């Protein structure tokens, strides 16, 4: 970047596993005109494959291994300290499989995005694909929401649907949902970096207007 160009909003990603969403964000951020830069990846799992992806992409990493802490509060305090060193504009949870304490959420209120593999408010928590199958749902999908103190309960910004086929298993459904995740997360992070979405008290503002329903990408 040239010295006279304004600095792009700084995106810090937190992940615990494979990091395919982290990769999608890195790839998107390297396209021309993307309004943000991925500056760091933090993991709670020292062996997360996401760390290798970051190394390949020349992106700084840090690990805060939750197993080294006696309580969630101590872990979150260490995580907050690491994050503050980067002064990010947005913290993107991309398969970060730790429940965050209210003090963590309050430290970064309005700057925390999460991706959850269901059409919220359905199926908060784990095993979302199997639960959608067990319920006989014909539509499933992914949601991206602002993080609040309530687990998977913050206001939803955008969702993408997948059609459940009669022969789908939890694995095939997970693959279909992940393909949508990789499309949808960069779109929402772009909106955030452009200043188009903001967290209100318990709603999303889009271009300054209260969003009555989340943006929905239908299956095609
Ligand atoms: C994604 O499918 C994401 O929706 C899910 O973890 C996966 C991470 O995949 N997140 C949650 O379940 C959060 N509760 P990735 O490491 O390949 O991006």
UniProtKB/TrEMBL annotation:
Annotated signal peptide: none
Keyword presence, Transferase: yes
Family the UniProt entry places it in: Belongs to the GART family.
InterPro entries: Formyl_transf_N, Formyl_transf_N_sf, GART, GART_AS
Record site: Raises pKa of active site His: 152
GO molecular function: phosphoribosylglycinamide formyltransferase activity
The protein's Enzyme Commission number: 2.1.2.2
Keywords (A to Z) from UniProt: Purine biosynthesis, Transferase
UniProt: N(1)-(5-phospho-beta-D-ribosyl)glycinamide binding residues: 19-21
Biological pathway: Purine metabolism; IMP biosynthesis via de novo pathway; N(2)-formyl-N(1)-(5-phospho-D-ribosyl)glycinamide from N(1)-(5-phospho-D-ribosyl)glycinamide (10-formyl THF route): step 1/1
Coiled coil residues, start to end: none
Active site: 116 (proton donor)
Residue ranges of every copy of the Formyl transferase N-terminal domain listed in the record: 10-188
HAMAP family per record: PurN (MF_01930)
Reactions mediated catalytically: N(1)-(5-phospho-beta-D-ribosyl)glycinamide + (6R)-10-formyltetrahydrofolate = N(2)-formyl-N(1)-(5-phospho-beta-D-ribosyl)glycinamide + (6S)-5,6,7,8-tetrahydrofolate + H(+)
Function noted in UniProt: Catalyzes the transfer of a formyl group from 10-formyltetrahydrofolate to 5-phospho-ribosyl-glycinamide (GAR), producing 5-phospho-ribosyl-N-formylglycinamide (FGAR) and tetrahydrofolate.
The UniProt record lists the keyword Transport: no
UniProt: (6R)-10-formyltetrahydrofolate binding residues: 72, 97-100, 114
Organism phylogeny: Bacteria, Pseudomonadati, Pseudomonadota, Gammaproteobacteria, Pseudomonadales
Organism: Marinobacter xiaoshiensis
UniProt protein name: Phosphoribosylglycinamide formyltransferase
């Amino acid at each position: 970047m040239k010295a006279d160009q304004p600095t792009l909003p700084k995106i810090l990603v937190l992940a615990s596993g494979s990091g395919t969403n982290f990769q999608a964000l890195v790839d998107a951020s390297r396209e021309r005109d993307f309004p943000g830069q991925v500056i760091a990846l933090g993991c709670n799992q020292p062996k997360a494959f996401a760390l290798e992806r970051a190394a390949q992409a020349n992106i700084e990493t840090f690990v805060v291994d939750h197993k080294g802490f006696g309580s969630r509060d101590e872990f979150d305090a260490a995580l907050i300290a690491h994050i503050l060193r980067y002064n990010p504009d947005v913290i993107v949870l991309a398969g970060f499989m730790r429940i965050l304490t209210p003090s963590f959420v309050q430290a970064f209120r309005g700057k925390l995005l999460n991706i959850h593999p269901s059409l919220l408010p359905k199926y908060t928590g784990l095993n979302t694909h199997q639960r959608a199958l067990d319920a006989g749902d014909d539509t499933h999908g992914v949601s991206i929401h602002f993080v609040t103190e309530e687990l998977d309960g913050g206001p939803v910004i955008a969702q993408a649907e997948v059609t459940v086929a009669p022969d789908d298993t939890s694995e095939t459904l997970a693959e279909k949902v992940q393909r949508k995740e990789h499309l949808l997360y960069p779109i929402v992070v772009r909106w955030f970096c452009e200043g188009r979405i903001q967290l209100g008290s318990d709603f999303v503002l889009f271009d300054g207007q209260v969003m009555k329903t989340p943006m929905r990408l239908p299956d095609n």
